[in-house]
Amino acid sequence: MKNKQTENKFALIIFFFLFIFLAEFYGFAWSRTQHRSTGYSIMKQSSEHKKLIAQQKNLKIEVAVLKSPQRIERIAKKRMGLSTPGQNQILTIR
């Protein structure tokens, strides 16, 4: 009878350590998977950030071109039929 109890205790101890080992193994594997996934996500976001920075730079250049006085003057003359005012058309207000 004592031999059977000893075997049961030994089997229970082995089962317990096996359970702990497997739990640690799965925890480690999950941790590595999450680490790798986070790394890929960071790499993807970094790439997207670089694209957006380049797009922002291009848009700033486009805004500067659209705001240029020469462009506005050209559009005013061609599309709206305006002309540069003469000396007698300019009034100084004090």
List keywords for this structure.
single chain; 94 residues; mainly alpha; 2 helices; rod-shaped
Please give a structural write-up:
This protein is mainly α and 94 residues long. It has one domain. Helices cover 81% and strands 0% of the residues. It has two helices and no strands. The longest helix has 66 residues. The chain is rod-shaped and about 120 Å long. The N and C termini lie far apart (117 Å).
Q: Could you give the count of β-strands? A: 0
For the CA atoms, what is the radius of gyration? Answer: 38 Å
Tell me the β content. under 5%
Weakly predicted, low-confidence segments: none
Fraction of helical residues: over 70%
For the biggest sheet, the summary is: none
- N- and C-termini, Cα separation: 117 Å
Which oligomeric form is depicted? single chain
Broad shape: rod-shaped
Helix-and-strand structural type: mainly alpha
Number of helices: 2
User: Number of folding domains?
Assistant: 1
Order of helices and strands: HH
Roughly what is the average pLDDT, rounded to an integer? 92
